Amino acid sequence: MTRMTVQVSRFEPDAGVSARLVPYEVEVHEGARVLHALYAIHEQDPTLAYRYCCGSGQCGSCAVRVNGKPGLACMTPVVDGDVIEPLDLPVVRDLVVDLVPRIERIAALIPGDRAELPDRETVDAMKDRCDCVECGSCISVCPAVAVSDFAGPTAMRQLERLQVDPRDAEDRVVQARDDGLFNCTSCHACYEACPKDIRIMGKAIERLRAEANRRGFTLPRHLEVSDLVRTTGRSVVRTETPLFERIDPVIEPYGPVRGEVAFFVGCMYSMRLPQTALDAIEVLRRNGIRVVVPMEQVCCGSPLIRTGQLDQLPRVMTINRKAFAPYPVVMTMCAGCGATLKNDYEDLPFRVMDINEVLTEFGIEPPAHLSVTVTYHDPCHLLRGQGISEQPRAFIRQVADLVEMPARCCGSGGGVKSGKPEVAAALGELRREAIAATGAEQVVTSCPFCEFHIAGHTDLPVRNITSLLLEAYRKKDEKEAAASTPPSN
Ligand code: SF4
Ligand code: SF4
Ligand code: FES
After folding, report:
1. Is any ligand 1 atom within 6 A of the Cβ of residue 142?
2. What is the 136 CA–ligand 3 centroid distance (Å)?
């Protein structure tokens, strides 16, 4: 048996006081789960309210937050110091949340007059979407649920599963559209939280959006984006002289060549934020990395995939595949492009690396330290789409003081900024509050969509991580120049 102390959130709605964390010392067996600790606490204090049923990951009733992350209490190992709180939903008492309004929005199968059983292939195709145990974890982390009338990730999962089920008689695509299908920012927080690993964005929402597209329900602003890709190869209009008109196709480093990357620039850095891409190129040159920029490259296709407009996808994928085929390492600096190349393109003949991975792998010349406190915004498509979180933080710590804020979607992804601007703005305002709470002087991130959107929701400078590094290199150069200049008499 092991003794440990865990903290549990206690809240009595009628007591008129806020929820508080209470420490409990418990004795549990080796390999115990959070639910075992809750049993032990309940023996000491029978007033603790928590929910469970199967004890084996099958019913979903025991979901709580452990150290801030949703999980099933019966499946999550308990360790000394754990903080156990309810899901981030309206609390009934202690660890029990009110899931009823959310469960009520999960559709039930409505059989038609001539209902047929699904064939084997259909059963296999929808199997993973049937694994849901209705634990509510995905709902509790969904940014779109937090700021809009979106029915929620698992409601969308169910609608997609019913949409392919031949027994069901309802129009689930219309229902999904009316229940907020286009409010999802494609942040993947639901997948990260799901104990059953259901990829709701890719397996349900993007499929429902593709079906909505076939039915003519695509939002007008999303149709404009698709038209832009068709006519210009880019998903945004130019507001600056594009990067491709400012640079040579091969940019040599300063000093010996330590490596080479082919740069997949992306629409935002090409057409709207070319100076940021130029800053990144300077940092790469300074660190001995040759940058090759294939000029034939076009939009990666992410705005098309996320909004369900798949007709041009094979064309843009073919162009990009061909443009980059000669190069062993393709570098992205847009989190959305990187996640799309890594996760949506199949069998690429090259390795795709985000710029944070490139600089980490090659190692960078030490920069100067800037006297500034910054906070870092994790782009969803970098954090959850590519698993990159520590690398940018390591660079920031070399040049600035870093204060953390909770990782949360800024609201710009999934076509939400263009198609549902009110949802994007509401999420941007939540970022404003989180940024202000850190007391930081600047915001640093590593995705053009986040940079652009957050800049509209804070008064602080919003910088790309490579721009911060470049400033630190310039400061280093100034210091060295000053140190080598003889004092004048
Ligand atoms: S991807 Fe993000 S916004 Fe979309 S349903 Fe999942 S949690 Fe909600
Ligand atoms: S989709 Fe996953 S996280 Fe959401 S309710 Fe179902 S099991 Fe829980
Ligand atoms: S008690 Fe049923 S899933 Fe945990």
Report:
1. yes
2. 12
Residue 269 confidence (pLDDT) above 90: yes
Distance (Å) from CA 190 to ligand 1 centroid: 5
Nearest to 235 by CA among 456, 419, 381, 426: 419
CATH superfamily of 2-96: Beta-grasp domain (3.10.20.30)
The total number of residues shown for the chain amounts to 489
pLDDT in tens, 386-396: 999 999 999 99
In the structure, which protein residues have their CB atom closer than 6 angstroms to any atom of ligand 2? 60, 132-138, 153-154, 157, 193-196, 198
Distance CA 258, CA 241 (A): 30
- Is pLDDT at 489 greater than 70 in this prediction? no
* Nearest-angstrom CA–CA distance, 351 and 331: 8
- Dist. CA 121 → ligand 1 center (Å): 27
Q: Which ligand is nearest to the CA of 193?
A: 2
Domain 102-214 bears CATH identifier 3.30.2090.10: no
How far away, in angstroms, is 141 Cα from ligand 1 center?
Answer: 8
Q: Which mutation among 89, 140, 200 tests ligand 1's pocket best, with the greatest number of atoms within 8 A of CB?
A: 200
Q: In the structure encoding, which two tokens stand for residue 141, read together? A: 């982390």
Nearest-angstrom CA–CA distance, 220 and 123: 34
pLDDT digits (tens, 9 = 90+) for 83-126: 999 999 999 999 999 999 999 999 999 998 877 888 999 888 88
Is residue 248's pLDDT more than 90?
yes
Give the phi and the psi of residue 53 in degrees, each rounded to 5. Answer: -145, -70
C-alpha 19 to ligand 3 mean position (Å): 24
Mean pLDDT of 239-250: 94
List the domain boundaries for the chain: 2-96, 102-214, 219-489
Structural contact between residues 378 and 407, judged by C-beta atoms closer than 8 angstroms: yes
* Residue 368 near residue 483 (C-beta atoms within 8 A): no
Ligand 3 neighbours by CB, cut-off 6 Å: 52-55, 57-62, 72-74
* pLDDT cut 70: percent of the chain above it: 100
**Average pLDDT of the chain, as a whole number:** 96
Question: Residues 292-320: pLDDT tens digits?
Answer: 999 999 999 999 999 999 999 999 999 99
Q: Say if ligand 1 is within 6 A of residue 153 CB.
A: yes
Ligand located closest to 136 CA: 2
Is 187 a pocket residue for ligand 1 (Cβ < 6 Å)? yes
151: burial class by Cβ within 10 Å (0-12, 13-18, 19+)? buried
Q: Distance (Å, rounded) from C-alpha 133 to C-alpha 195? A: 9
